[in-house]
Every structure is written in C-alpha cells, then in structure tokens.
Amino acid sequence: MSTHWLSKINWSEDGLVPVITQEAGSGKILMFAWMNREAIKLTVEMGQAIYWSRTRKKLWHKGEESGHVQKIKEIYLDCDEDVLLLTVEQVGGIACHTGRYSCFFNKLENDQWMIIAPVLKDPKSIYNK
Amino acid sequence: MSTHWLSKINWSEDGLVPVITQEAGSGKILMFAWMNREAIKLTVEMGQAIYWSRTRKKLWHKGEESGHVQKIKEIYLDCDEDVLLLTVEQVGGIACHTGRYSCFFNKLENDQWMIIAPVLKDPKSIYNK
C-alpha cells in the first residue's frame, strides 16, 4: 500500500488528529475520537475504525471487546488537512459506551442538558462477556 | 439566562472544546472548530455560531465577513461532556473558506486524496467585498 496520502495529514504537536465518525446512510454523528498515524494506517488496511485512546495511551480497535466494530465506508480530510471524517457502518447499532446509539445524547433545551436517547443495551452486558 | 449548563462542559486544559457543525436536515458535516466558554455562551445567546479561533486567538463570529453565518438549530454534548455538536442552517450554502459547501472535500480513494466538491464561489469575491 502506498502511504503517500498519510503525509498530507497535518498532525498536531502530539501527533494526533481529531476524527468525526458519522453513520453512512443516516448521516447521524456517532462519536468523536482521535487517531495517530498508525491508527489511520491500520484503519485503512483493516477497513475498521482503530482510534488512539488518549486516556489509555494505546491503539483502540473500536468494538474489539463489545463486538460493535465500525466498518469503514468513506474517509474524508478537511480543508486544513487536520481533521478526519469517517463514514461507517456501525455493527450492533450501538456506538456509545453507555449503550446508546450515538455519543451525542445530551441536548440543550431551555438552558438544560436533556438526555434524548435511550440506553439500548446495558453496558454491563456489553463489556462483561 | 441561567448558565448552569455551561458548568457541565468538560473544558480541556486550554479552556476549549472541539465542535462538530452539521447541516440540519441534510445531516452533512460542514466543518470542525473549537469553542471556549465565552464562544458557546454567545452562540446560545445570539443563535448563531461563534467559535474560538486558535490561530487568531480571538472569538470568531462565523460569517461576520462573508455573510455565511450559521443559524443554530440544536446543540448536543457527548457522553464524556467534552465535545459539542451543532446542527445549523448554513446561510449562503457555503461553510468552507475555500468557497465550498463543506470543509470535508478531500476523499480518500485508492490511497489518494481526491477533491470531490466544486468551489461554488471564488474566495476572493467572498472576502474582499
């Protein structure tokens, strides 16, 4: 695989870029995360989303434990070449570690954050198999 | 206006949060930027997107020069309470400083970034009024 395309990405000082993950078809935003050079390279090679976990400081194959992997459909880079957008097929229909469809479930309504999406699966049953 | 909702946001060490801006209705991702506390407060008060420009180190009322303001429809916060998602009406149908509909116009195809969206308006005519 040619990796010339990797050189076009403007990595931040800490070697990361922000990543927006959108569901192909519905256009819904599923989550937001980070990637380093190795993560996006593996993502392209495997066809599944592999992020960089800033808290755990290691590569994070999304769904490796839960089975909720994200199959890559398209990859975009923005005008400043420092933000990635993935469109994916979300296996299991759950992207969030809380057991929800999307991570963006707090909606601002009348100066309050309202939870507007249900937990589809108990996180305990997702992660303690 | 109650500002209790502002306290729920987990600001980074530099006082910012990433912001994803999505077109209401179409679901298309228009851009990615940053906000500080003042920016999101003003955004809610004015009903238009006001970001924090990290390069210019000042508040940035999107469209103040071009007229391409973003009218806020909905505001979401993610599960970790450290990423915002705006759904907006993009006035003028141009979000990108290159004169394109969206900032995400580089698509990875066969290990190459391909420009997949046309320039709708010459940036010179957008900014040198």
Automatic annotation (TrEMBL), chains A, B:
Q: Which reaction does it catalyse?
A: 1-(5-phospho-beta-D-ribosyl)-5'-AMP + H2O = 1-(5-phospho-beta-D-ribosyl)-5-[(5-phospho-beta-D-ribosylamino)methylideneamino]imidazole-4-carboxamide; 1-(5-phospho-beta-D-ribosyl)-ATP + H2O = 1-(5-phospho-beta-D-ribosyl)-5'-AMP + diphosphate + H(+)
One GO biological process term: L-histidine biosynthetic process
Q: Which residues bind Mg(2+)?
A: 78, 80, 82
Q: Which GO terms describe its molecular function?
A: magnesium ion binding; phosphoribosyl-AMP cyclohydrolase activity; phosphoribosyl-ATP diphosphatase activity; zinc ion binding
Query: Which cofactor(s) does the record list?
Result: Mg(2+); Zn(2+)
An annotated GO cellular component = cytoplasm
Q: Which SUPFAM superfamilies match?
A: HisI-like
Q: Where in the cell is it found?
A: Cytoplasm
Please state the Enzyme Commission number of this protein: 3.5.4.19
**Domain Phosphoribosyl-AMP cyclohydrolase, residue spans:** 31-105
Instruction: Kindly name one Pfam family recorded for this protein.
Output: PRA-CH
Q: In which pathway does it act?
A: Amino-acid biosynthesis; L-histidine biosynthesis; L-histidine from 5-phospho-alpha-D-ribose 1-diphosphate: step 2/9; Amino-acid biosynthesis; L-histidine biosynthesis; L-histidine from 5-phospho-alpha-D-ribose 1-diphosphate: step 3/9
Q: Where Zn(2+) is bound, by residue?
A: 79, 96, 103
Q: How is the cofactor bound?
A: Binds 1 Mg(2+) ion per subunit. Binds 1 zinc ion per subunit.
Q: Which keywords does this chain's UniProt record carry?
A: Amino-acid biosynthesis, Cytoplasm, Histidine biosynthesis, Hydrolase, Magnesium, Metal-binding, Zinc
Instruction: Give the family from UniProt.
Output: In the N-terminal section; belongs to the PRA-CH family. Belongs to the PRA-CH family.
The protein's job, in short, is: Catalyzes the hydrolysis of the adenine ring of phosphoribosyl-AMP.
Q: What is this protein called?
A: Phosphoribosyl-AMP cyclohydrolase
Q: Which organism is it from?
A: Nitrosomonas cryotolerans ATCC 49181
